[in-house]
Structure of SRPBCC family protein:
Amino acid sequence: MADVSVAVDAAVPARVAYDQWTRFEEFPDFMPTVLAFDHPDELSLKWTLLDATGRRQTMEAEITEQVPGERISWRGTNGDFAGIVTFRPTGDATCRITLQHSTFPEGDMGQFGDQPGLEKERTRDNLVSFKKHVEAAWTTPD
């Protein structure tokens, strides 16, 4: 099993970051590893992405928990990965975003287990891309 945990601090309120994260369909606009996204129903997610080895993958997941403004967790429909993203206030207009995920060797996503350093770097790059996107999109209230 490969476990990855990455955190970044963003200059936006936690609720703003959470709200932006739930706009999954926008991920291909700012995350280079996400090629396409589909949201078949309220709890289902389907991503087309480049995996840690540069191969095109389809990842299907279901949302297992969603606490507005705080966290979203998911698991792969084949049971081969799971994750959670949390949004914690660090000030009036700042927050810490933490993305944690695990992949299991027996599943389709198991190749990450052989390259945990590469997957952590890729996850950090994606989270930094998200941070830049949400900060650029947010306008400070007057």
Remarks:
- Helices lie at 14-21, 27-30, 116-137.
- The chain has a mean pLDDT of 87.
- The two ends are 47 Å apart (CA to CA).
